[in-house]
Amino acid sequence: MKVDVDMGVASAxxxxxxxxxxxxxxxxLVQGNSGSGKSxxxxxxxxxxxxxxxxxxxxxxGDFVTLADKFGHVVVDAQRTxxxxxxxxxxxxxxxxxxxxxxxxxxxxxxxxxxxxxLGGMFDAERDHWYPVLVVVDEAQLFAPAAAGEVSDEAxxxxxxxxxxxxxxxxxxxxxxxxxxxxxxxxxxxxxxEASNFLMGRTFLDIDMARAxxxxxxxxxxxxxFRDLARGHFVALGPALSRRPLPITIxxxxxxxxxxxxxxxxxxxxxxxxxDLIFTPGPDEARLPVRRAPPPPMPTADLLAQLSKPKLAPxxxxxxxxxxxxxxxxxxGIDAVMREILEDPDAAFRSDAVLYQDFLVRCRIRRVxxxxxxxxxxxxxxxxxxxxxxxxxxxxEVWATALKLSEDLPDDLQGVFLVVAQAAIANAPCPSxxxxxRAYGSHSPRRARRLxxxxxxxxxxxxxTDFHSRRILAFPDLGCETAPGDPDAPDxxxxxxxx
Length: 499
Prior knowledge:
alpha/beta, Rossmann fold, Arc Repressor Mutant, subunit A, 11-stranded mixed β-sheet, 41% helix, 14% strand, ATPase_Atu1862_pred, AAA+ ATPase domain-containing protein
């Protein structure tokens, strides 16, 4: 079904049509400095496509909540726990409701964590709910920064991972990313490079103009044109827009943002009692504390006498307001819950969202003390538990190196890598394709072989075969390798569960 979204007027006076079905498959990047009309463009796209596709807007400033009145979007206030946002995202995909995730009122790090939790819930939705969704992320440089900033490394890594999943792997799950940024230089390159459609607006910095020209396939000398673009004027390129760079003017919108551009307003006439109005506090104002002069300096003799006095006995410690959590007891309870989940033979073929819900329920049943693990921490710990490493191996430096290597892999591949790494550290036979497929949550041995090829391309391991056609996996960074193993051997654990 072909649906053309009217974005405005092209340079030749013809309608600037955007192929919505092609956009869902190829994604869109919008770039423009503040005041270039970037938010106006996104609003035009959302309004024109609202009847045709489900929409999700990640809104850091709360400008798009006005879509709710005219187009029925549900506003999701992000001032919730990460687990709650993840569950809401799953229900949104299930019931196909258009939403605006309002991040207004949160600081930058909280916005990154909330957006990552919500996008992770949409990404991890069950396969039956993979309907097309237009995911619009305004100010994308906040959620996929090119370099570390003032936020913690953990928040940046979680947010960047969610944005990478959206742009790199979201298409097969029905997620079509539309990201907008003020500066291309501040946006992570691996996120920007996944877009095939571009709308470039006014920009002034040389580095941003050069990147915009590269993305549009233009000569560096032509990049100067981006300085001369008026507000609401963009250069379009991509399979959903135009095969050649095409100047377009964005059309009008039906709704308006809560915040508007500053307008010059004449000053009011100065009142005669202006001085009294400024320096006399109002009746409702809180009284500020009066600044007092500092005390006179203490004489040296008095200071020495005070220092020579015996110290008073420390006051007995007060009773803690909250019960002290025994970390050892908490970790033991979490480990026990992880083992219970792993004992279920069907657990390998369930999504992370389903396993996480099962984990939370089991933790409540066992009354595990403390705050439950969030979804990213659960994924990481479940991947480590799935490897089945013993206590002695877990304390070694080689296993610590394997854990560090796995941190750079996508979440769904970390468990598979740790399984083969544990086999190499223990010098156990190389796992078969069926075992690796189960660790990945699949029934396809061919997919397991592709995973090993992916690890080999990343330089994490080397696959070789002995004279008996048995497979051996060598890990250069760990200094160890697996024993020979039959790649076509059946999955013993799955067979035992069936019997």
